[in-house]
Write a structure and sequence with these properties.
It is built from seven helices and no strands. The protein has about 140 residues and is an all-alpha fold. The protein has one domain: Farnesyl Diphosphate Synthase (Orthogonal Bundle), CATH 1.10.600.
Length: about 140
């Protein structure tokens, strides 16, 4: 996470989509994949299952960051409860690189893929995890 944050605050680090994905992977992806993988380790899941949870966390992290970029252009600072300074600071975002529609499509695909992968997991009640994912996806700020 520290690497992702460091890359994020460095001037002109992300100049293309792979570079921005790398930042998101090491920033929010790590933040969200760690607890999912830790839970799988504590539940004594097979390595492949732990990897699946890790991958789901990285996908949710990327979706979250794309959603953040979309909210930054779709909502006012008052609605967000924070400054939407990315455009003012000419910061590269998923929206500036991919466009608003492609960003939205990718975000929705990442969330949907995560739902499907969680629902396919066997041996546990996924209700709480799916509800948490829905609350993340349905956030408005």
């Amino acid at each position: 996470m520290v690497l992702g944050q460091s890359l994020d605050i460095q001037e002109n680090t992300a100049t293309d989509w792979p570079a921005l994905q790398r930042i998101h992977h090491h920033k929010t992806g790590c933040l969200l994949s760690a607890p999912l993988e830790m839970a799988a380790v504590l539940a004594d899941c097979e390595p492949a299952v732990r990897q699946t949870w890790r991958d789901i966390g990285f996908d949710i992290g990327l979706a979250f960051q794309i959603q953040d970029d979309l909210l930054d252009v779709q909502k006012s600072a008052a609605e967000l409860g924070k400054s939407n300074s990315d455009a003012r600071n000419q910061k590269v975002t998923s929206v500036t690189l991919l466009g608003e529609q492609k960003s939205e499509d990718l975000m929705l695909s990442l969330y949907q893929n995560s739902y499907q992968r969680i629902e396919k997991m066997k041996g546990f009640d996924s209700t709480a995890v799916l509800e948490l994912l829905k609350s993340i996806q349905n956030r408005s700020h």
